[in-house]
């Protein structure tokens, strides 16, 4: 018996439960767009719960592609799969198979399913169900996934024909929730090789054929449309392909002549110049002695999108032209420019909108990195300065040093602390962010690397690249602890140079958001940084600094005098601050009631404090009420007919506050006492 339950990666849209298939169908667009934001790692037992409690599930695991024109989960977002789900709808009456017969069919071939449950469309007359197989290893190859499906189709065959629904073959297939679990075995985890031995006949071949058809269509597009429109477009594509070959051959970010050229005084401006000035005479004019250098991270792609596509492709702006991606007798495409200055290729027939980067990626069938390199060479742009490149290399060296065994041997306490607090992934992520979002020395005016991050970027980047269970709050605490021991520095607004603040404001305007953007700095990369961090940890340990909150008297139970001399994080000061804040509002409410009614109940004061929970109200009131009685010279009296008559308390007031003679306590001023 396994002591640790195996976990499987999948996507579960657990934001809302769906009761029937029609409700799920009405929300399918929402589910497809958002399911990538709900990754899970679940055991078989947890998966069975999600399957039958109204949650749509995708049994594969994928990540969102930020460069994709669609937010929905597509096959190109797929990364791996460890759970295989097949549907049996029993449409063929001659091969009708019950749930028990299907399970026996699997077990007879040595393939035991993990979960079997009925779907929403299943009835007593016709069983429709879904079988889930759990694999020991993840499938990360699409062809291997197709072979596994074919093997399962061969296993589940009756009278020489498979009984499974071969249409459920998509990598990004989203399955609706089911009705009831019919079979469950959490120990049934299969080996891929045991399944592949049954791959005799290919029932599911549409996927490979569709890829071939797509490739043929792309080739026909290039031959029939792109090459026949004009020479300028063809020249752009050929230049892009040639650049890509050179880049791949030399295994560098850009061509080596571009890397070694001398920068001009224009690069000291600190900001990028609008690129369309470079295209006034010719879209291919390049002055190697005057390159434009991106000194502010995040600006490169936003500036590349402002390249005048009409001049680059030699097509008129806002004029109909034949589409590059399909044959049309009537021109249905246009080159447009939106309000942000981006040039967009818009085809109304295909219903697509591409900027210059996406367009060249689709036309030439190359990666975004290749297009970026090509456009940087074409427009004479360098996307990092020599100082940025040097700092990036130093950060990479520091990351490699942290992974090395000598780091653990030289700084054992620091290594132990970061391991125990699970902060190694957080620190490595911050170093990655420093390399990605590094400001140039001229812009920052500092010798140490300065970079920026929004909280949204921070959380997304962490959960995307690091397999570490940390929620948002613990992630921020970890970053603050790294700043405390000196591994990073959180910059205040007063410490941020004005040039960087201007750049951050421009980023906010470009991205149309007003979220807080934090700035961080990396200290000098030397042995002193880690030595000082270890020294700080040892000092905290010697002085009994506790990261979790304890009272001062609990620090050293046997000696209060010693406890008072030791620096600890004292919860008393925090409680006193909260009580004082509570008392100000508490007293103000009491004075108002004494002025209007000449008396008050404790519940009158607590009902006014709506921002506090009932537990907090009770706790703080125990502190504040005795102080209030002493300060205002109040007296506590029992409710009686005499008090009722003296203060003109109405029956409505008595009923509303559930007042009883001799039980309910009122607070009055002593001078009003008879």
What report would you give on this structure?
GO terms for molecular function: DNA binding; zinc ion binding. InterPro entries: DNA_primase_Znf_CHC2 (IPR036977). With 674 residues, this protein is α+β, with helices and mostly antiparallel strands. It has 4 domains: 8-204, no CATH class; 218-382, DNA Primase, Chain A (Alpha-Beta Complex), CATH 3.90.580; 386-542, no CATH class; 573-672. The protein contains 29 helices and 22 strands. Strands 4, 5, 6, 7, 10 and 11 form a 6-stranded mixed sheet that branches. It has a 3-stranded antiparallel sheet with strand order 2-1-3, covered by helices on one side. A 3-stranded antiparallel sheet has the order 13-14-15. α12 packs across α13 (368-378) and α16 (412-420) packs across α22. Residues 206-237, 243-291, 548-558 and 566-571 have low confidence and may be disordered.
Q: Can you describe this structure in just a few lines?
A:
This protein is α+β, with helices and mostly antiparallel strands and 674 residues long. It has 29 helices and 22 strands. Strand 13 and strand 14 form a beta hairpin.
How do the helices and strands line up, and which of them pair or pack?
Blueprint: E1 8-12, H1 21-26, H2 28-34, E2 39-42, H3 44-51, E3 57-58, E4 60-62, E5 78-88, H4 99-108, E6 115-119, E7 129-139, H5 142-155, E8 157-158, E9 161-162, E10 178-184, E11 189-190, H6 192-196, H7 206-229, H8 231-250, H9 256-260, E12 292-293, H10 299-304, H11 309-312, E13 333-337, E14 343-347, E15 352-354, H12 356-364, H13 368-378, E16 381-382, H14 386-403, H15 405-410, H16 412-420, H17 424-436, H18 441-444, E17 450-454, H19 455-465, H20 472-484, E18 489-490, H21 498-511, E19 517-521, H22 527-542, H23 552-555, H24 560-565, H25 571-596, E20 599-600, H26 602-608, H27 614-632, E21 634-638, H28 641-646, H29 651-656, E22 665-669
């Amino acid at each position: 018996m396994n002591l640790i339950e195996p976990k499987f990666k999948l996507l579960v849209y657990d934001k809302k439960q769906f009761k029937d298939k029609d409700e799920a169908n009405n929300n399918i667009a929402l589910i497809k767009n958002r399911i990538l934001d709900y990754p899970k790692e679940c055991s078989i037992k947890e998966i069975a719960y999600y399957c039958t409690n109204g949650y749509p599930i995708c049994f594969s695991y994928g990540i969102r592609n930020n460069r994709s024109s669609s937010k929905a989960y597509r096959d190109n977002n797929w990364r791996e799969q460890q759970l295989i789900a097949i549907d049996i709808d029993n449409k063929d009456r001659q091969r009708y198979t019950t749930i028990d017969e299907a399970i026996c069919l699997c077990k007879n071939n040595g393939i035991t399913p993990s979960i079997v449950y009925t779907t929403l469309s299943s009835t007593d007359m016709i069983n429709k169900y879904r079988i889930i197989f759990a694999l020991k290893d993840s499938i990360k190859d699409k062809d291997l996934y197709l072979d596994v499906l074919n093997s399962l189709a061969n296993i589940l065959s009756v009278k020489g024909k498979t009984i499974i629904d071969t249409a459920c073959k998509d990598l990004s297939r989203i399955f609706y929730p089911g009705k009831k679990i019919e079979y469950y075995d959490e120990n049934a985890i299969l080996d891929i090789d045991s399944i592949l031995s049954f791959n005799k006949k290919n029932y599911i071949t549409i996927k490979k054929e569709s890829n071939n058809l797509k490739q043929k269509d792309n080739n026909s597009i290039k031959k029939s449309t792109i090459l026949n429109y004009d020479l300028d477009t063809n020249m752009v594509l050929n230049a892009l392909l040639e650049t890509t070959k050179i880049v791949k051959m030399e295994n560098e970010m850009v061509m080596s002549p571009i890397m070694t050229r001398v920068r001009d005084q224009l690069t000291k401006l600190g900001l990028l110049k609008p690129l369309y000035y470079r295209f006034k005479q010719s879209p291919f004019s390049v002055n190697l002695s005057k390159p434009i250098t991106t000194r502010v991270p995040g600006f490169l792609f936003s500036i590349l999108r402002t390249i005048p596509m009409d001049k680059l492709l030699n097509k008129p702006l806002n004029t109909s032209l034949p589409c590059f991606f399909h044959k049309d007798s009537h021109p249905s495409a246009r080159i447009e420019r939106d309000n942000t200055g981006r040039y967009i290729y818009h085809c109304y027939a295909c219903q697509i909108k591409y900027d210059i980067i996406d367009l060249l990626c689709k036309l030439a069938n190359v990666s975004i990195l290749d297009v970026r390199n090509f456009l940087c060479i074409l427009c004479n742009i360098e996307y990092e300065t020599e100082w940025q490149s040097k700092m990036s290399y130093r950060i990479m060296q520091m990351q490699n040093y942290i992974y090395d065994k000598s780091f653990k041997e030289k700084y054992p306490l620091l290594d132990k602390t970061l391991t125990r607090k699970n902060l190694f992934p957080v620190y490595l992520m911050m170093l990655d962010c420093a390399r990605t979002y590094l400001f140039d020395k001229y812009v920052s005016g500092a010798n140490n690397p300065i970079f920026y991050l929004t909280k949204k970027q921070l959380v997304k980047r962490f959960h995307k690249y690091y397999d570490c269970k940390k929620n948002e709050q613990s992630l921020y605490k970890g970053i603050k602890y790294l700043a405390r021991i000196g591994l990073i520095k959180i910059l205040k607004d007063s410490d941020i140079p004005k040039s960087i603040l201007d750049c951050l404001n421009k980023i906010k305007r470009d991205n149309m958001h007003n979220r807080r953007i934090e700035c961080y700095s990396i200290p000098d990369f030397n042995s002193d940084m880690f030595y000082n961090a270890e020294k700080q940890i040892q000092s905290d340990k010697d002085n009994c600094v506790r990261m979790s909150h304890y009272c001062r008297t609990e620090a050293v139970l046997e000696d209060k005098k010693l406890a008072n001399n030791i620096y600890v994080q004292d919860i008393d000061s925090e409680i006193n601050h909260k009580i004082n804040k509570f008392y100000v509002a508490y007293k103000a409410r009491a004075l108002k009631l004494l002025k209007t009614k000449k008396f008050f109940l404790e519940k009158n004061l607590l009902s006014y404090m709506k921002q506090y929970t009932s537990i907090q109200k009770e706790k703080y009131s125990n502190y504040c009420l005795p102080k209030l009685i002493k300060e205002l010279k109040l007296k506590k009296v029992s409710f009686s007919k005499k008090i009722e008559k003296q203060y003109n308390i109405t029956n409505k007031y008595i009923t509303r506050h559930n007042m009883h003679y001799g039980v309910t306590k009122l607070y009055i001023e002593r001078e009003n006492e008879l």
